[in-house]
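Human: I'm a chemist; would you kindly supply sequence and structure tokens for a protein?

Assistant:
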Amino acid sequence: RPDDVMTDRWRSHRKHVFVLSEAGKPIYSRYGSEEALSSVMGVMMALVSFVQDGGNTIQSIYSDDHTIVFMQKGPLVLVSASKSHQSELQLRSELLHVYHQIVSMLTQVSIDRIFQHRKNYDLRRLLFGSERILNSLLDAMEGEAGFLLSAVQCLPLAPSARDSLSQILQKAVTSNLVLSILLVNGQLVSIVQEKTVIEDARLKPTDLHLLLNLIRASLAFQTGEIWTPVCLPGFNPDCYFYMYAAYLDPPDCTICIVLLSTDKGAFYAVSECKRKIEEAVRTHNALHCISKARPCQVHHVGVTELRHFLFKPLDVSDRYSQLSQFTSPEVEVPYSTAKERIYLMDLYWHLHSRIHSTSRPLKLLYHATERETLLAWVTGKFKMYACFSPLVAKSSAIAAVTKLLQWIKKEEDCLFIRSPPKYSTTLPDARGYSNRGPRLTSRTNETASFSPIATSLDKMQKPVT
């Protein structure tokens, strides 16, 4: 059986991720059933406890071909066993994303409260049906650069077209609406935020990654309108937003609108906002404009030796830095297969590890393999990772990157959202009484189960007793 922990197939996976409680109860395993792994997780918990008894905290274990990283977050213990050659810090970051995905479904305060009352509680009861979401997250971290750069990718679009779409989102508002997001194939087209929410906190790239993963992993989002509680841990790990999501182009399901509200009972009002957006998009023929937009291609740069690159600007005015962004071309030959894309990302992870080494951090790194040459360059203004054909000398790579930077500067208004628009949901006749917009409220007496993502949405709001 593929989930038998004694088989060579199970052992051959290059990375395993486990989640268990302090009591040793299995919660999640990337491969294999939790029941079959209960003894393995028991050994993991025994290691954690043994080191704790000595007044220390276990961090990692190294062997010839494995790195095992431990992370404890409240009552949960997360473990990664990897053959991927990623650094300990990188594996720890992945575990943190897994933890945040779990928190996004239950909230941190609910998890803590559950285990305060019942240390042996089986958290799988609340996470039933969410394995697909966690699996999808781990798959995404293998091949998506946004996790490496802690940034989100925007769909390249003419500034006038992006402004028109943002204005459509700005006009479709209702009370307690805090975020309106338009996505195409997982890439950001426009994001509009309520003014007072921006004053309180900022949406983190991690939060948007979690939302994108939830939508991508759950087939229910392709069937119609979805209304579900979701926590954004980077914003507030103890509270829920209520997320409305729907596709504007069924059955293709490439253009998605996501609306976040603080009002649990606002489904119909938020659904009406979506109807207005859909109507305006069709009136202005914006769907056609969006469908024609494509990620940039490496040949647009005009550098023959360049195969691929990642670029994240850092010199963005604080006023406009609500969401870190990056740009990257479509992955082409020789990295067009899933296996080759992971190979390319592994190279970028290696450069990232060397550049951000705690013992010897670097600003510029040239790296050559038999198949390609790579250059990593980090300044106060940008982070750049570039991949070239083999035998490109360091001086030639630097000259090529200089030309690439000039191209990005020329196209930056198309590649990035330079000034995220805002709106106010405070009614004009109420502004004299209060200048406060919607506020996120704690749901400490309620825990949402995400099993309905795959089964019944009605059960999502079932309180925990």
